[in-house]
């Protein structure tokens, strides 16, 4: 449906940019579809046709913001690489904006595809770390085990269980996984 | 603010019951505050004053529905008890109603207290299992380790990562935790 570089892609970029600008200017609670449409230079019906409602639009914008911008840092060893990545992941996801994006991504996501994309971002970053380690000849766990042992506990505590969210916790999860 | 057995408690029970009845009759999407108020015999402003909006009310109702009704099954050993509990937890939470309650609990929860209550339910059940094992003289892990190793991966996959959600997965998480 979306032709990259086509009108559809331009509309998406304009609408996402309008949400980011208006949120920065007047905050999250003040956002409305007509206001976003006006800023993006499209009609409200264009937004409703494409996104259904504001929550689904905010979910798409949140997923874009959760997309990693750089490959994980290379510190020369699996444990160091995973620890650095886990610490940064926890720091970003447990920050107020990180929590807001996770909530938005989950809430306006009837088919679960945006939540799945968030998990795919983490899996892709972990794949890069595991691939580097394998090239170094290090034994590597399966990516799903890293998601279960490191990513899942951090996300569970961010969403359901306050406390325990410091860099030492992220490192401990990695150490427990790698034994 | 809530006097158990007082008017406040009666209002809560009537409103929660009205939500459950109306949802069963006409489904989740059809729920409105005026309709719920009429069924519960209260004014809409009573609901808005107490719950803020429909999403916060649905979050409270969802948390009530996620409250365990019976203590975890006693199979006479830590591994068997944890496996049975994890299998049942996964079965209930990954079912369509379970997923809907988790979503509701998270969405209408500005201060995170309802999500925290969901986690406390799981921790309490696990505490019972660990307490029994300790009385039998079995070595027991810390409850937070059980949450990280068993509950978190299941909840993470329910919310973010489809697939892998079968009883064998729940048992494998327990086996990995207990070594």
Automatic annotation (TrEMBL), chains A, B:
Entry keywords, A to Z: DNA-binding, Transcription, Transcription regulation
All copies of domain HTH tetR-type, residue ranges: 9-69
InterPro entries, A to Z: Homeodomain-like_sf, HTH-type_TetR-like_transc_reg, HTH_TetR, Tet_transcr_reg_TetR-rel_C_sf, TetR_C
UniProt DNA-binding region: 32-51
Residues spanning the signal sequence: none
Keyword Metal-binding: no
GO molecular function, one term: DNA-binding transcription factor activity
Classification via PANTHER family: HTH-TYPE TRANSCRIPTIONAL REGULATOR RUTR (PTHR30055), TETR-FAMILY TRANSCRIPTIONAL REGULATOR (PTHR30055:SF148)
Name of the featured protein: DNA-binding transcriptional regulator, AcrR family
Organism: Lentzea jiangxiensis
């Amino acid at each position: 449906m979306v032709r990259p570089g086509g009108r559809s892609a331009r509309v998406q970029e304009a609408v996402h940019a309008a949400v980011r600008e208006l949120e920065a200017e007047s905050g999250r609670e003040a956002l409305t579809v007509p206001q976003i449409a006006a800023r993006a230079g499209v009609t409200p019906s264009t937004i409703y046709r494409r996104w259904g409602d504001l929550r689904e639009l905010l979910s798409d914008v949140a997923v874009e913001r959760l997309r990693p911008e750089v490959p994980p840092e290379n510190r020369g060893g699996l444990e160091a690489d995973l620890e650095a990545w886990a610490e940064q992941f926890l720091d970003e996801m447990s920050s107020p904006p990180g929590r807001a994006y996770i909530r938005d991504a989950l809430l306006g996501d009837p088919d679960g595809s945006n939540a799945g994309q968030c998990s795919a971002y983490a899996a892709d970053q972990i794949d890069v770390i595991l691939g580097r380690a394998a090239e170094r000849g290090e034994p590597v766990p399966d990516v799903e085990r890293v998601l279960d042992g490191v990513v899942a506990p951090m996300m569970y505590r961010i969403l359901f269980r306050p406390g325990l969210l410091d860099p030492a916790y992220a490192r401990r999860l990695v150490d427990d996984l790698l034994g």
